Amino acid sequence: MRHLLPLLLTTFVLLPLNGFSATPVHNTSPPATVAVHTPAPKQIDAERLLTRYADALGRKDADAIAPLISPSANVEVLWLDASPPKRFTLSATDYVQQLRALWKFTRNDRHRFGPREWKAGSNGTLRVRLTHNETRDLLGTPSGQENQLELTLANTADGLRITHIMSSTKMW
Asked: Which residue range(s) make up the domain with 64?
């Protein structure tokens, strides 16, 4: 039941309420989101942005998370516990809304972030890979998940933003 409850909540309550559906995994490459002429972000600036993102997650502050993500960003979640694995794709706005919806049902949320592995991306982007472990009480039941994240950051017209999030997620 501990593993089933978060899956059921997400699959049958949160995602359908917001018009999302699961699709089998086909293509794993992220969409291109940044023009070629933009300069790559500096790693120190990207570190600061990710620290603000992690702090906002820990505070359950969706209003602080929203401006860190480009409005044109895609958030892809590869649900590894499904058979076959399913991929959900959300817009930045829908991602923030899903966080708000999830947080209404959770208590004692805790986040741990692993070391960051940086790599220059194409088209003036900077990519970072890291592990994000979450634990929480969801509807009174202890649950958790491990997210293998790859975030793409770029300088946009609005400043440094997260332009793509890819998460491979396992529940426990």
From this structure: 4-18+40-171
Partnered with residue 153 across adjacent β-strands are 126, 162
Q: How far is CA 18 from the centre of its chain?
A: 17
Helix ranges (H only) for the chain are 4-8, 15-17, 43-59, 62-65, 92-103
This prediction's pTM? 0.80
Domain harbouring 99, CATH code: 3.10.450.50
Q: Is residue 23 part of a domain?
A: no
The 10s digit of each residue's pLDDT in 47-83 is 999 999 999 999 999 999 999 999 999 999 999 999 9
Determine contact, residues 33/72, Cβ cutoff 8 Å: yes
Beta pairing class for 159-171 and 69-79: parallel
In the chain, the number of structural domains is 1
Cβ neighbourhood burial of 112 (10 Å; 0-12, 13-18, 19+): exposed
